[in-house]
Design brief:
It contains eight helices and nine strands. By secondary structure, it is an alpha/beta fold. The strands form two sheets. A seven-stranded mixed sheet has the order 3-2-1-4-7-5-8, sandwiched between helices. The chain has a two-stranded parallel ribbon with strand order 6-9. The longest helix has 21 residues.
Amino acid sequence: MDLSIVIPAYDESRKIERDIKEASGFLTSHHLKGEIIVVDDGSKDNTSETAKKVIVPSNVKLQVIHSNQHHGKGYAVRKGIEHASGEYVMFADSGCCVPYEDTLRGLDLIKSGTCDIAHGSRKISGCHIERPQSIYRRICSKIFHWFVVHDMKIPAEFTDTQCGFKIYKGDIARNLYKKCQTDGFVFDIEIIMLAQKDGCKIIEFPINWTCDPDTRLSPSRSSWRILTDLLKIRQTLNRK
């Protein structure tokens, strides 16, 4: 398997068919043998049923994993990567905010030996933002970035830790996510810190991005869990 694409989903019945078709179209057009792993994280709608009905080309394997309980994005990504068998593994948020063609930039960085992990970023030179986030979300993002740099000691060179478009060497992804304990939104921070401890090199690359206003994250409602999870990550990793 060349590339495993993990798509975490929660109440995404209106988007998931397009997600799968865009991902399978990318794999087919670039002659990649790949798999698409949709992880339905306890949806209340028919996300799983819709995903299972999508027809994919013969070079693409489609798996749909359904959880009876909602855990969080970190859990969904971890569960998908646990089932991934690709030489390279990536995850992409539902909604096709980033065109799958941008995957080639990250894969090239990894294949050339420039890095082990390639993070898409919406905040570096070369990005194209079709529709930006609201001012409120941009302010929340800046506050979050300040906190993880100054309190969690994440290097400031990582401009967009929460971008939902990341690519890994397959073995590295499986190893990191096996150790990851965070189920919620800030799992990316734990993965970055684990990767640094393991000596993995991470590089950001510019993406084309369109904001999807139909998001499952509410900064105001999730702020306490985000802060709690960050403090748990810091406490756990500082003990090791």
